[in-house]
Structure formats: C-alpha cells, structure tokens
From TrEMBL:
The keyword Transferase applies. Its EC number is 2.7.1.-. Residues 23-343 form the DhaK domain. The keyword Transmembrane helix does not apply. Keywords: Transferase. PANTHER family: TRIOKINASE/FMN CYCLASE (PTHR28629), TRIOKINASE_FMN CYCLASE (PTHR28629:SF4). InterPro entries: DhaK_dom, Dihydroxyacetone_Kinase. Pfam families: Dak1 (PF02733). This is Dihydroxyacetone kinase-like protein. One of its GO terms (molecular function) is transferase activity. SUPFAM superfamilies: DAK1/DegV-like.
Length: 343
C-alpha cells in the first residue's frame, strides 16, 4: 500500500519573503522619504546623492558625520539631530555609502570648524571615507570604531569590526561638538571612548536580504551564531542554544577580557537588539548581564536597552559595555534630540 496516499501534508515549498516593500531597488529611498516626513522638524533628506542632514546646524560647530550600509536602522540616519550627528550617509542594504555621498553631506553640514567622520571598521567604509576626505578642501578627521571584541579578524573588516558601540561613540562625540569642542578635541574623545568600549553579540538565524530574498546564513534549530557581525556575517563560532544567563555570561566574558574594568570604574551597559528580538527578551538579557556584572563587583552607572544598531530582521542581540570617565559620562548624559535617541 502506498503510505503517501494517507498523508494530508502539503509538499514543502520555499517560504516567500514577506516585507513591507514595493521594490527592493527603491526600498532605501522610500524608507528615507518616510523618515524625512515623520521627522521634518529634525532632519532633511537629499536623494541625489543620498544623505540625511540636520535641519539646524550651529555656525562654528564641528560637524560629526557617519554612515555606511542601510539595514542597521536607526543607525546611522536615526541619530541625525541636535547633540549627535550633523549628517549621515546611507548606502544600499549592507553596502557602503559612496565618496560622492560623503562629500555632499560634509559640504552641506560643515559650519566652519571642520568635519569629524565616525567610521565603522569595514573595508568599504574605510576606503570610501578616506577617498572623500581627500576630495574635501576643509579640515576633516576620522575616528574608526572597532568595538566588536568577539573577533580579531574578519573577511569583512580590517581587524575588529564596528558594532553597536558606534552609537555610543556618535553620541559622545556629538555632545562634545555641541559643547563647542574643537575638531582635535572631538577626535581625541572619540578615540578614547572607542578604546573604552567593547561589544559581543549572538544571532539565532540569519536575516532575510530584501535584494536576494534569501537568508544571509542558515543554522540548525538548536544552534546559535556567537560573535555575529552587524551585517549578519558569521561570528567566532557556532554553539548550542543556551539560556539567557549562559549567553550573557559568555558575551560578558569576551567583553571583560577586552576592557578589564576595575570595581572603582563606572560602566555604561547597552543591550541592543538586531531587529527581530522583542523588547521583553532584551530586558531578560539585560537582567542577566546586570546580575553578572554586579556579581563581579562592578558598577552600572548608565544603561540603554532597545534596537539601536540592527541587522534588518535578525533575531538576536548584543551586549556593549563602556568604561566611563567623568568627561565621557557627562557627554553621554548631555541632552540629545534625534529621531531615535532623545533625552
């Protein structure tokens, strides 16, 4: 007897990609148009070449500019506003912005005190920002963010990758610029906060690329990727699924080996979602991470929980720790008003 005749199951088919989009090729521009309309009081969007610029820039203030591939929102475009970025350059999904975008954004945002570029440590970003710097005829400098402590080398980056620590560098440097710091002073504090920041992340599966309609990687139902990057690129190792307590401990072990904080240090603890993790789960992860840090005798001075540096619809998240000094703590807590971060 043919057993298949008794089966009510439908044949397995590939799951179609389901997203709010009209076309993969217009996705970024249409998203930016929506951003501009909702936050017209804060920012403006220019589409040829593409960049986002703050509505009101202060003469004599250093213009802090960042950018990179889209798909990480609210990083970077969501942080254009008072007390943070003067402009941001979004490339296509997971693709670096071009030198022409960066030059146009810098020319629109520069207010006579020069520009400071906040650049994630990826080959394309480094090359294109360096090219733009050579094309500009006013003072510019660069801070490279490489907070990802989970990998030392990657085919996607030159050494350690830039991760969720990017938003911390952007906030601190943006506050310094708003307070009237010079270009050299902004660069100094940016390099210092980057050196005092480390991140590690995990993902439960790859994100769905809206261009290809395929996941960036596929893993087993009982596996997770430890040390995953912001583009969904594979991390340090593939490990069995574990509890939030266990995962927090593993991520913090990586971060603590890098930062080596002492009990007298004050810490900023950021738990960041990659785009598809519910806020309730992020609070579970924060609770676990906070408990582990306190058990080590460490002091959490500031905290942040939410989806701040994402990877499209990746389920998972990261932990970032910054060792604060008086200046960095003050700049972090300084007023900020952007689409995605404000206090």
């Amino acid at each position: 007897m043919d057993q298949s005749s008794n089966c009510n199951c439908l044949p397995l088919r590939p799951t179609p990609m389901k997203k709010f989009q009209n076309s993969a090729h217009t996705f970024v521009h249409e998203s930016l148009r929506g951003l501009a309309e909702v936050h017209a009081d804060i920012l403006a969007v220019h589409l040829d070449p593409t960049y986002v610029v703050r509505r009101e820039n202060t003469p004599g203030q250093v213009a802090v500019i960042s950018g990179g591939g889209s798909g990480h929102e609210p990083l970077d475009v969501g942080y254009v506003g008072q007390g943070m970025l003067a402009a941001a350059c979004p490339g296509e999904i997971f693709t670096s912005c071009t030198p022409n975008q960066i030059v146009a954004a810098a020319q629109a945002a520069e207010q006579g005190a020069g520009c400071l570029f906040i650049v994630k440590n990826y080959r394309g970003d480094l090359l294109n920002f360096e090219t733009a710097l050579d094309m500009l005829d006013f003072d510019c400098s660069t801070v490279v963010v490489d907070d990802d402590a989970s990998v030392d080398t990657s085919p996607h980056s030159v050494g350690r990758r830039g991760a969720a620590g990017t938003l911390i560098v952007q906030k601190v440097v943006g506050a310094a610029a708003a307070a009237g710091a010079s270009l050299a002073e902004c660069k100094t504090v940016g390099c210092r906060v980057n050196s005092q920041t480390a991140s590690a992340g995990v993902s439960f599966q790859g994100c769905m690329d809206p261009i290809t309609g395929s996941p960036t990687f596929v893993i087993g139902a009982d596996e997770i990727e430890f040390g995953v990057g912001l583009h969904g690129e594979p991390g340090r190792q593939r490990i069995p699924m574990a509890s939030a307590e266990n995962l927090a401990a593993r991520m913090l072990d990586t971060i603590m080996r890098d930062l080596k904080p002492k009990p007298e240090h004050r810490l900023l603890l950021c738990v960041n979602g990659f785009g598809a993790t519910p806020l309730s789960e992020l609070y579970v992860l924060f609770n676990a991470a906070s408990g582990h840090l306190k058990a080590r005798g460490l002091n959490i001075h500031c905290s942040l929980v939410g989806n701040y540096a994402t990877s499209l619809d990746t389920p998972g998240g990261s932990i970032t720790v910054t060792v604060l000094d008086d200046e960095i703590a003050s700049l972090w807590l300084a007023p900020v008003h952007t689409a995605a971060l404000r206090w």
